[in-house]
Design goal:
Helices cover 18% and strands 39% of the residues. The chain contains four helices and twelve strands, in the order ββββββαββααβββαβ. The strands form three sheets. It has a six-stranded mixed β-sheet with strand order 11-6-3-2-9-12. A four-stranded antiparallel β-sheet has the order 5-4-1-10, with no helix packed on it. A hairpin with a 4-residue loop joins strand 7 (74-79) and strand 8. The longest helix is centred in the middle third of the chain and has 10 residues, at 61-70. It is globular and about 40 Å long.
């Protein structure tokens, strides 16, 4: 998949399944992407809600370094559940939060069910320009809710 800046870092909070401590978790989003039959590359601007990216198996080092400088516990991790390595949110105790639970479970960190839940999230535009090639999944659905109610950093 190809994404085009602007790229957003979305921050939320989730309780760890292992130690039960609430932790900050992050996800990437871009309003402009090309993947298979979907070609929205260059047709969006930073006023539109982005596609949320998950299960990121590969990304350019410049993008990873920017994210890791803000949230160092986002790193490549072998998931036994998924059976593959991808960039994941890792708890202070070492447990992987799992993108499926964060992105696909209603009420999960990146699947808010209402404006109140979305208002507890924050959005930061990353200082990056250009296009980036990623091996990732993307989703659309709750981004409008997030971008309407989340805090801007």
């Amino acid at each position: 998949m190809t994404i085009l800046a602007p790229i957003y870092l979305i921050t939320s909070q989730e309780k760890c399944w292992k130690c039960h401590t609430p932790q900050k978790v992050v996800a990437l989003g871009s309003p402009s992407l090309r993947d298979g039959d979907v070609d929205m590359l260059g047709s969006s601007d930073d006023s539109e809600a982005p596609y949320l990216l998950s299960n990121i198996a590969d990304m350019p080092e410049s993008l990873y370094a920017t994210v890791a400088a803000i949230h160092p516990r986002f790193r490549k991790h072998l998931s036994r559940t998924a059976g593959e390595a991808y960039y994941a949110n890792i708890c202070e105790c070492g447990a992987n939060f799992g993108d499926h639970y964060l992105h696909s479970d209603p009420g999960g960190a990146f699947f808010p069910l209402d404006a109140e839940a979305a208002s507890r999230m924050s959005i930061r535009k990353l200082p990056l320009d250009g296009t980036f090639e990623l091996d990732a999944s993307w989703a659309q659905g709750v981004e409008d809710l997030i971008f309407e109610h989340a805090r801007r950093e």
